[in-house]
Amino acid sequence: MKQRIITAIIAGALFIPFVIYGKVPFTLLVLAMAVVGFYEILKMKGISLFSVPGFLGLLTLILLVIPKDWSSEVVEAIGYSSTLMVVYGLMMLLLIYVVLVKNKITFDEVAFILLGAFYVGLGFHYLNETRNVGLEYVVYCLLVVWTTDSGAYFVGRKLGKNKLWPEISPKKTVEGFVGGIVIAVIFAIGMQAIYPFMNSYVSLIFVTIFASIIGQMGDLVESAIKRHFDVKDSGNILPGHGGILDRFDSLLFVVPLLHFLHLFGN
């Protein structure tokens, strides 16, 4: 526990200034975290980031993470009309590589690489997009995710009796799941009282409950991936907390869905 607290304080002290400042430094930090997260998910499958398939997947990830104006410039520079066309081209190269190496890398592994690039890439892309909408929105997302996580942990530890999904995450409980939502709503209301950023408290509560549920599902998804590959953590870059995916798994679900549902402005 002591190590977790120390790591959280140090990581927060390094991360928060980037969030506040935003702009290019925040975008580059998000890109760096996405690359580490992609490395972690490939490692679980036993695929090297420094292999040909790993490198092609990395290019796909970068195109998905970077802001739209950056990717548009890259796409135009190489003579294509859309990012989707370039991503499709990279997919074709991955499939051709399967043939060239005579199935030493399989279709399943190519699919895993591409799904990993989209899962990690779009999640971090929309983290950056959320910051571009406004500081208050990215603070809100981080607040909801972190308070849900903490609330679920402490409520589950004190009151948890009914297992939520023991086959995937044995320690999570129904009481913790509900407690995480309640704690997130309380903190969100506190933020709204200090700095009103949503139209009404009703909208705020609805969005917070939705985000808290989706965030916990994102956490369960990453737990399912780790259990499938029989690993405790996605990485060890954050002592006591695991890897980048361990800390951002919920956020990778929350920020894209809030944008897809147009709950944040453009």
From TrEMBL:
Q: Which family does it belong to?
A: Belongs to the CDS family.
Work out whether the entry's keyword set contains Transmembrane helix: yes
Positions of transmembrane segments:
6-39, 46-66, 78-100, 107-125, 137-155, 176-195, 201-221
For this UniProt record, give its keywords in alphabetical order, as a comma-separated list: Cell membrane, Lipid biosynthesis, Lipid metabolism, Membrane, Nucleotidyltransferase, Phospholipid biosynthesis, Phospholipid metabolism, Transferase, Transmembrane, Transmembrane helix
| Membrane topology, from the record | Multi-pass membrane protein
Highest taxon, organism lineage: Bacteria
Please tell me whether the keyword Acyltransferase is annotated for this protein.
Answer: no
Which reaction is catalysed here?
a 1,2-diacyl-sn-glycero-3-phosphate + CTP + H(+) = a CDP-1,2-diacyl-sn-glycerol + diphosphate
Q: Which GO terms describe its molecular function?
A: nucleotidyltransferase activity
Q: What is this protein called?
A: Phosphatidate cytidylyltransferase
Q: What is its EC number?
A: 2.7.7.41
User: Where is the protein found, in the record's own terms?
Assistant: Cell membrane
Organism of origin is Lysinibacillus xylanilyticus
Pathway field: Lipid metabolism; Phospholipid metabolism; CDP-diacylglycerol biosynthesis; CDP-diacylglycerol from sn-glycerol 3-phosphate: step 3/3
